[in-house]
Write a structure and sequence with these properties.
The complex is a heterodimer of chains A (116) and B (114).
Chain A lengths: L3 E4 L2 E5 L4 E7 L6 E7 L6 E7 L4 E4 L2 E6 L4 E6 L8 E4 L2 E4 L6 E4 L4 E6 L1
Chain B lengths: L3 E4 L2 E4 L5 E7 L5 E7 L5 E9 L2 E4 L6 E7 L2 E6 L8 E8 L8 E3 L3 E5 L1
Parallel strand pairs in B: 2-11
Antiparallel strand pairs in B: 1-3, 3-8, 4-5, 4-9, 5-6, 7-8, 9-10, 9-11
The chains are: A mainly beta (116), B mainly beta (114).
């Protein structure tokens, strides 16, 4: 199973600055690392993900980096804009007692506030 | 995204009433989940189902029950609603329980228990 810890819980940046959110995981067998964004009053949606066979993936102003040795992956947002203000989640998975599969948990997330 | 639909979108109910929240999906996914979200807090897993015959408790199942009527439908019930069950509820689906696939969320149901 997977134990994922996310930091920080809140992050405030000035518009135009960069933001970095980090998740550490415990299961060395993990091979998929997603990031979800939830805007106020809306549903969470996947914004970027990475598989363990690559170290970095970019999509315009967002990127995810993976450090398998240290067991952490990070979300990077450059040139932040007010619309980046949201809660960001890196979900983890915990095994069922009967080993039938993993339940998908999202935790507390990181609240990013971009100040104009 | 109408692939995962929750009904109702908003509901106000009285303490002690039974209420059912419904979720249906057209994505053909086997796995479905119910989460609750409280103001300023993250998502907490209530129940999840890997297929029609499979129901599992999540992190906070007390006071809730679920029914998987078909692959496409997963309902959440509050047998006797209480005020601290006031929250935003999300249903989600995924193609397989491994986190290696994307989870798709419904638009949420805002429940208020008075």
């Amino acid at each position: 199973g997977e134990n994922v810890e996310q930091h920080p819980s809140t992050l405030s940046v000035q518009e135009g600055d960069s933001a970095v959110i980090k998740c550490t995981y415990s299961d060395s067998a993990s091979n998929y690392f997603p990031w979800y964004k939830q805007e106020l009053g809306k549903r969470p949606q996947l914004i970027i993900d990475i598989r363990s066979n690559v170290g970095e993936k970019k999509d315009q102003r967002i990127a995810v980096t993976l450090n398998k040795t240290a067991k952490h992956f990070s979300l990077h947002i450059t040139e932040t804009q007010p619309e980046d203000s949201a809660v960001y989640f890196c979900p983890g998975a915990y095994p069922q007692e009967n080993n039938a599969g993993n339940m998908l948990t999202f935790g507390g997330g990181t609240r990013l506030m971009v100040k104009p | 995204d109408a692939d995962v639909t929750q009904t109702p979108r908003n509901r106000i109910t009285k303490t002690g009433k039974r209420i059912m929240l419904e979720c249906s999906q057209t994505k053909g996914h086997d796995r479905m989940y119910w989460y609750r979200q409280d103001p300023g807090l993250g998502l907490r897993l209530i129940y999840y189902s890997f297929d029609v015959k499979d129901i599992n408790k999540g992190e906070i199942s007390d006071g809730y029950s679920v029914s998987r009527q078909a692959q496409a439908k997963f309902s959440l019930s509050l047998e006797s609603a209480i005020p601290n069950q006031t929250a935003l509820y999300f249903c989600a689906t995924s193609d397989g329980g491994h986190p290696g696939t994307e989870a798709f969320f419904g638009q949420g149901t805002r429940l208020t228990v008075v």
